[in-house]
Design goal:
Distance between the termini: 62 Å
CATH architecture of one domain: 3-Layer(aba) Sandwich
Structural class: alpha/beta
Largest sheet: 6 strands, mixed
Number of strands: 20
Shape: globular
Number of helices: 22
Amino acid sequence: MALINLKKIKLGFGNPMLLDGVDLQIERGERICLVGRNGAGKTTLMRLLSGELNPDGGEVARSPGLKTAILSQEVPKDLRGSVFDVITGGLGDIHGLLAEYHSALSALDNGGERAMAELERVHHELEAKGSWQAAQMVETVVSRLKLPDKAEFSELSGGYKRRALLGRALVSEPDILLLDEPTNHLDMESIGWIEDFILGYRGTLLFVTHDRMLMQKAATRIIELDRGRLINWQCGYGEYLERKESLLNAEARENALFDKKLSEEEAWVRQGIKARRTRNEGRVRALMEMRSRRMERRDLEGSARIRSEAAELSGRLVIEAKDVSFSYGNGKGPAIEGFSTVIMRGDKVGIIGPNGSGKTTLINLLLGKLKPASGAVRLGSRIEVSYFDQHRAALVEEKTVQDNVGEGNETITVDGKPRHVIGYLQDFLFSPERSRTPVKALSGGERNRLMLAKLFSRPSNLLVMDEPTNDLDIETLDLLEDIVVEYAGTVLLVSHDRAFLNNTVTSTIVFEKNGLTEYVGGYDDWLSQRPEALPEKAERKERQEKPKKDKPLKLSFKEERELKELPGRIEALEAEQNALYARMADPDFYRQEGQNAAGAGARAVEMEAELKALYSRWEELEARSVAASGRARS
């Protein structure tokens, strides 16, 4: 039996509907990634699954006793108490008992038999209620997320609040765990932990993320919310992109043919009225139906059209730092010691480090906004900086979207030509109505798009971007990647988006335990070059070079026959896989197949594993056969 089953769900807050006849079936053990554009209704669907919202129409069937937990994008403004209290709040009835345990544990630091007796009492009560495992889970989550358990939640930074709320969702061990952008505002180490957690999670998981690397590694199924419909994709992220493009191309061709037919029928009916008194009434009724279908059709929304405006080329040297040191003093804030670097025109440099390590401070030092305690920073000639600030300080909350970009003017100059601000903002998916909205009413994704609009409305040759990818949908992320790659000037980029770094930067500056270190390449290149990776690489190389004496090179008769049969077995399995994927790509698949859908999903996962094993076996036998042939000839 499915954990939850949605049938013909309708839900919206006006027109068009966010969920328009949606079907969804979630089986035990799935890791489902929900994708869709910003504003498509992903968070609404998750809130409906969690029970926070009721549908306007349709049926929600839940497994008896189903328990869900959700990590929302927004941090509750009225949440108070210590980090420990916030996390244990996700455990329901035993929340108070765990708070007593934590208080008794803290009192033990001051010593005394009374404190020890209180700790033993609470300890025994936890054991009696079978809650000791939950207490250990809380301690594990606090430790792994590196949370200050005694700190006041309301005083934490935005990133640490997200971590604490994530811990609150994790400790309840629900039947279905719903994660809405779980990696937002987390640093690389925490993102890695989240990834490991999701991959090792034995329960059922549905998550929304714009982290493409996480999506590729973790999702066993992708569901897409697109114009009120929910489409099932039983494949990984890379294959989803290919199949999605094919689907959109087919949809565009079908719509074009339909629109052409509609235009011809409209022309016919107008001629009929003039030429004769009687017409083919069946054809007229068909025309009326076509008009109705065209009215109901929800066309694909436009894509953002982001372009950067180039300034005059800067000098060949952009930034030179020599033995730069900086600290806020009194043990507060990050310390940078003896750092040197040379950044040349055209370099695209990624800056990586934990939250609070000093990435923004380093940028301000390199731009000359902060004076180093020692050492020197020299800027090259003809530098024109565009700065994307992670705190969006450049946006004035009370002003409208239009005034934030136009600064009171109705036109701006882009590529040397005047453009109306409203028209320019439409390139960034702001409708004329939304352009007149105050910034304080915008969502996180809209704020980021507005920052990009403001950033690219001015010419530059040094592009500085501090966490530009937060809250952007995947399509806009891809467009921004193209902009950074094609940008003719120099780029300084702070990001925790691993795929974005891999695809855009030519080198990285990393905050490590022993200070700042520079590496060639992107995120994956840093992982392979960092000191911690060297022993692993040496060990792996030694294993690869070590001769394998326990496996003979020459194939047995049985192995030779297996080698001949493997291509046919692989071909047959791939044909079965393609046929199954074609069925499951149909939006009506889950509605038509019913209970068979779960079996189809399980079979798809099995086939993927079978193919991987067959290919591995084929490569092994082929390599041994070739090696044996070479030895025989020599």
